[in-house]
Every structure is written in C-alpha cells, then in structure tokens.
Design goal:
321 residues, alpha/beta, Elongation Factor Tu (Ef-tu), domain 3, six-stranded antiparallel beta sheet, disordered N terminus
C-alpha cells in the first residue's frame, strides 16, 4: 500500500483527549514527510481501519480550514461491536493508523440566511466543525444541544467560549428533565433557515416529522442508527456465490453476525445501516431492507443489501461473496 492514496491514508495518532464522560477525541497527523491531508468540508467523516477487519466512521470535528490534522471524537458504547471500546482502551499516542479520505453525506449550506442545529449526545461532533466554519465566514447560527447530564456534554466548553454563546447555544440536560421541543424549535425558525439534526433515533424522527412542511432542500439530518430495527428473526439461508457455501441464519442473529461467526471477510462500520460500509451485492433472493443508506430505487431493485441490519424475505439469499 502506498503511503498516501485517494482511498487510504497513513497517519500518526498525535493526541488523545477526554472531552466528556465516555467521550475521547483523537488527533491524527500525516506521517513524517507525507503530504498535507486532503481538504474536507464541514460535516464530513473519515473511516478508521481497525484490527480484525473492522471499519468505523467518525465525523471530523476540527476546523475545515486545517489541513495538518484531522480530529474525531469517539463515544464508548457498551452495547456496540467493540470498536469504541477498543478505541478507548488500546490506542497510544505515536501509533500509526490508516484512514480513508474524507467523505461528506451531511454537507453544510454556507449561504443560508441562518443555520439552526438540533443535536443529541455524540451527534454534536459534525456540528462542531460546521459551527467552526460558520464562525470563520461570519454566518448566523443557533444550537440546541441535548445530553443526559452536564458531564457528558462534549465540546460544551469550546462552544461556551464563542462570542454571544449565551444567546446562540441552548443546553438541555435530561437529568434535569429538560428536553428540546423539536417541533416548537422548527416551527419558530424563520423562513430561509437551514435546519440540521444529528442524534438518537427518536430525536431525528421527531425532527423529520416537524420539518415535513418546510422546503426539503433546507432540511438536513444524519442518523446514528437506521429508523427500523435490525432484522434478527433468522430462519433463512445465505449462499456465498463465490464458494457455494450455504449458511443458516439463526433466530437472534443478523446476516453480519452469521458471516462473522463463519469467518467470512466482510467489512462493517456503524452496524446500524446508515454508513454503507457493509454493502454486499445480491445475486438472487429478496432482501428485507432495514437500512437508511440505500435509495428507494436501489431497495426496489434488490441488487444490494446492508448485511449489518437487513434480512431476507425469501428462504435463500445469494450474496456476492
């Protein structure tokens, strides 16, 4: 592998910092003598390649003006597949990592009359970069930021240091019974405001419903997890087209669980059907699509499946593996 390519970039981990309870940030810089990192836009993320063929996607939180470093934040997830726990336990400053070039599925509209953000928990991470960019260009913005308690509010101190933060940042702490009125916030937003939401499923669902009557090119959201529960009913077989193996998917297991249990080499990241990393081609059969990555047309065509969360409506599903 080359040191620096359009797809994969070798970097050094240069700093680890605790940002809040169970949230740590990681700064990556180019290896010595390497070129500057690719330019990124606010809202972008990178894929981080971890051991055991794991890939995890993390939003970039630093100022998009910077090309000498990338910074991501990782929240420890006790119920996850081990990526966040590994990141909190194993990496040490000075170690070498491989990352992808930045990708952006959650872009910022810099020409908006005003930008209004509604965030929950670790959903603040892409918005921090957006706010840094809006501050740099002198654009108007407001933030509604909900967390379980003050100690879990990553980047709250950084935001509090911005000019007029008291009038532009509103915090909500669940342990104080304060939750954002998403519909009320959306309804009060002036015409021409671009609205953004990143957070847990319930918050994003409420946001989408509240924005139904607004121009959809002014509505932006990013999910942590698909809107539907993962298909874990089992009761069907997957056939690996390239080697002919037939593998039964048992009740309580996803296709991804089953493939990993049988040593099948398949990449995955979010495990929630939102990032697209685990996309696999479908040769035959009818998938039960549960993801939020494929378009409606792609789902209707049944040519691909997100194996982390989707299942099968047919007794057999032939995968391009």
């Amino acid at each position: 592998m080359s040191q620096h390519s359009p797809e994969r970039i070798d970097v050094h981990l240069t700093q680890i910092r605790l940002e809040a309870d169970d949230v740590a940030s990681y700064e990556f810089r180019p290896v010595a003598g390497g070129p500057a990192l690719p330019v990124f836009e606010a809202g972008a993320h990178i894929d981080l390649y971890l051991p055991e063929n794991r890939v995890r996607s993390y939003s970039l939180v630093n100022d998009p003006q910077e090309r000498h470093r990338y910074v991501v934040a990782v929240q420890r997830e006790a119920a996850g597949r081990g990526g966040s726990a590994w990141m909190h336990r194993v990496p040490r400053v000075g170690e070498r990592f491989t990352i992808s070039a930045p990708k952006n599925d959650f872009p910022l509209c810099e020409s908006a009359r005003e930008s209004l953000f509604i965030c929950g928990g670790i959903g603040i991470t892409p918005v921090v970069a957006m706010i840094r960019r809006l501050e740099r260009i002198g654009a108007s913005w407001r933030l509604h930021y909900a967390v379980r308690e003050c100690s879990r509010a990553a980047y709250a101190d950084d935001l509090a240091q911005l000019d007029n933060a008291d009038s532009r940042v509103e915090m909500y702490f669940q342990n104080e019974d304060r939750r954002p009125d998403v519909r009320g916030i959306v309804d009060r937003a002036p015409a021409g405001t671009h609205l953004y939401c990143c957070g847990p499923r319930g918050m994003v669902d409420d946001f989408i419903a509240a924005c139904a009557g607004r121009p959809q090119d002014e509505v932006h959201f990013e999910r942590f997890a698909a809107a539907n529960d993962a298909a874990s009913e089992g009761g069907f077989e997957v056939v690996l087209h390239r080697d002919g193996r037939r593998i039964a998917v048992a009740p309580g297991k996803t296709i991804l669980d089953t493939l990993l249990d049988h040593g099948v080499d398949v990449q995955y990241a979010c495990s929630s059907g939102v990032c697209g990393t685990c996309r696999v081609g479908v040769i035959d059969g009818v998938p039960d699509h549960r993801d939020d990555f494929l378009s409606a047309d792609e789902k209707a065509g049944n040519g691909a499946i997100m194996v982390c969360c989707s299942g099968s409506l047919s007794p057999t599903l032939v995968l391009d593996l």
